[in-house]
TrEMBL record:
Domain OmpR/PhoB-type positions: 121-216
CDD domains reported in the protein's UniProt record: trans_reg_C (cd00383)
Name by which UniProt lists this protein: DNA-binding response OmpR family regulator
Gene3D superfamilies per the UniProt record, alphabetical: 3.40.50.2300, 6.10.250.690, Winged helix-like DNA-binding domain superfamily/Winged helix DNA-binding domain (1.10.10.10)
Keyword annotations of the record: DNA-binding, Phosphoprotein, Transcription, Transcription regulation, Two-component regulatory system
C-alpha cells in the first residue's frame, strides 16, 4: 500500500483517481490547485505524486522542483505535445500520461513506478498502527510495539493476505514452518496477543470453523 498525493484541478478526474486508488488498497490526499499542492508537498510525506501539469496558481513544472528527490511523480496532461513530455522527464518526472486515460492504465503505471522506486507495499497502516515491512518495525502513533518473532511472522502473513480467510493449519504452517508439530491452539494464542497489542480486536476476524482473516476496508 502506498500513500499518494493527487494534484488535479478537475474534480471529477481527481475523485475518479481517488476512488480507484482506494479499490486497490492505496491511501491518498486530494488537492486541486498549485498552492495547496505546494503546501502538502512541503509538510507531508508521500510515496508517489500524481500531478496535472496545467494547474491554477502554480503549474506542475514549477511544483516538481519542490518535490523531494526520492518521491516519484507521474504527470497528467491533456496537451499532446512532445516538448512537454521531454521537459517533464528532464525535470524529474517518472512517467507521463495523456488525458483522457483509462483508469486501468493509470493504476498499472502507478504500480510500475512504485515497483521501480521500491516503495510499493513497504508500509502497511491500519487504525493508527503502522507496519514497516522492510525494517519489521511496528508502531502505534510513533511508539514502537514489541512483537515476538512468531507474532510478527503471523502479522505479516495476515497483511499480505488481507481480506482472505486463512485456516489455523495454514497459518501454523506459514508462520512456524511445515516441520512444526505444535497444535493449532498456538495460533489462537498468538492471534489474541496481536489483537490486544495492535488494538485490532475488530480487524482480525474469527472465521467460524476455519481460522482468521484480517479485515481491511476497500
Amino acid at each position: 500500500m502506498a500513500h499518494i498525493l493527487i494534484v488535479e484541478d478537475e474534480t471529477s478526474i481527481n475523485d475518479l483517481i481517488a476512488m480507484n486508488l482506494t479499490l486497490v488498497g492505496h491511501t491518498y490526499e486530494q488537492v486541486f490547485d498549485g498552492i495547496d499542492a505546494n503546501r502538502s508537498i512541503k509538510e507531508k510525506r508521500f510515496d508517489l505524486i500524481v500531478m496535472d501539469i496545467m494547474l491554477p496558481e502554480r503549474d506542475g513544472f514549477v511544483l516538481i522542483s519542490e518535490v523531494p528527490n526520492n518521491t516519484p511523480v507521474i504527470f497528467l496532461t491533456a496537451k499532446v505535445n512532445l516538448t512537454d513530455g521531454v521537459k517533464g522527464f528532464q525535470l524529474g518526472a517518472d512517467d507521463f500520461i495523456l488525458k483522457p486515460f483509462e483508469t486501468i492504465e493509470l493504476l498499472a503505471r502507478i504500480e510500475a513506478v512504485l515497483r521501480r522506486t521500491q516503495r510499493s507495499i513497504q508500509v502497511f497502516a491500519l487504525d493508527g498502527a503502522v507496519v514497516n515491512l522492510n525494517s519489521r518495525v511496528v508502531t502505534i502513533e510513533g511508539n514502537e510495539i514489541e512483537l515476538t518473532l512468531r507474532e510478527y511472522e503471523l502479522l505479516e502473513i495476515l497483511i499480505k493476505n488481507k481480506n482472505i480467510a486463512l485456516s489455523r493449519d495454514k497459518l501454523l504452517a506459514m508462520a512456524w514452518d511445515y516441520e512444526y508439530c505444535g497444535e493449532t491452539r498456538t495460533v489462537d494464542v498468538h492471534i489474541q496477543k496481536l489483537r490486544k497489542k495492535l488494538n485490532w480486536e475488530h480487524r482480525i476476524k474469527t472465521v467460524y470453523k476455519l481460522g482468521y482473516r484480517l479485515e481491511v476496508d476497500t
